[in-house]
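retry 2 of 3: previous attempt timed out while embedding D-gluconic acid. Reduced batch size to 1 and resubmitted. Inputs unchanged:
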Amino acid sequence: MPQETPATFAQPWPARDDIRIRAVQTIVTAPQGIPLVVVKIDTTQPGLYGLGCATFTQRWKAVQTFVDEHLSRLLIGRYPGDIGDLTRLAAYSGYWRGGPVTNNAISGIDQALWDIAGKRAGMPVYELLGGKVRAAADTYIHASGISIEECLDQAKSFVARGWRHVRLQVSTPGGGGYGAPRLATLYPDAPYHNGWSARDYLRTTPDLFAAARESLPDNIELLHDVHSRLTPKEAVLLARSLEPYRLFFLEDVLAPELWDRLPEVRAASPVPLAVGELTTSLGDAVRLVRDGGVDFIRSHISDIGGLTPARKVADLAELCGVRTAWHGPGDTSPIGAAANVALDVSSAAFGIQEGHIYNDATHEVFPGTLRIEDGWLTPNDAPGWGIDIDLQAAANYPAELSGHDEWAAGVRRIDGALEAP
Ligand code: GCO
Ligand code: MG
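retry 2 succeeded.
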């Protein structure tokens, strides 16, 4: 049972009833080998609790401490319906704001409070947001391979299972490639044998898409993730070389440090650009949408503070003609995935949703986890997120430190210089 802490911070105004936050705890579990962080908020009403995604898989211990030691005492005794005030308090009380640790901690609280609000209203969260503007969210899925052939075989199997959008990644020489298995080095004489070469990546990537257009049905949409590795000029060269293959989007051509250059790259790019999984504040996301740097905004919503800020981004995107493609990889808990879908079906700015196939163990830990069917994600109609957690099952999958550190340590150019992972 979560530990009960005495109320420290008084309710600032009379609440409309006497339900109060009783306990706040983080749960860390790794049913698919990836540490997932979830915040559980219990209330004084027996059986009424909420769950929120706080997954910063690489630094989960920091998020856990942040919630359990710093934020929970601000919340105990407060009325759970004051979501705006409670999340602003969580942010302002630290004085310095933003960043993935802070925002994931706040997101855990924010999404758990939305879950409670839905359960109290007897409504799914998408309905609290104004209700559906579409029946379901179309998703894209990741196909990858050590060779072009292997990648396209996987893509074909996804198409056969109903997907209309497939992201293609193929291995590049050395250990630093993104999104596909490691390949033996081609650079035995270089200072760092397992390095990654932007030059070779730019030369070979169009071959993958040329082959895809020849062997996949013509109506299938193709996507690709660069993972922040290029200079602005290289980004334009890649985008132009991919023009004949009609990409749905080209993702993360530049690292966040270079985002000021996105408008010029976008202006010169014949393919739509998707950016944003590395936004770590609402302000970052707003600048990308407002300043003309992106065709698709794809924040990881717990990294900008949860549903409350993300719905503002969705509204701004609608007004600016930008579409959403919320980040939804395996380091998003099923609660976070449900939050993505609640936004997807309730926002006119929806573009596409990144899909992830959760394994059986994840379904066991999180009953109600959404399943992609024929490429579509349909929200759960149960109140709140409609997703539960089995604490005993969660404990059967203890988390270890993320393997991302080991991988990132090897992402280097062939001269040995570290590269953005
Ligand atoms: C994506 C991403 C992820 C990230 C991962 C980092 O587009 O899905 O780039 O796969 O690399 O979330 O932890
Ligand atoms: Mg990405």
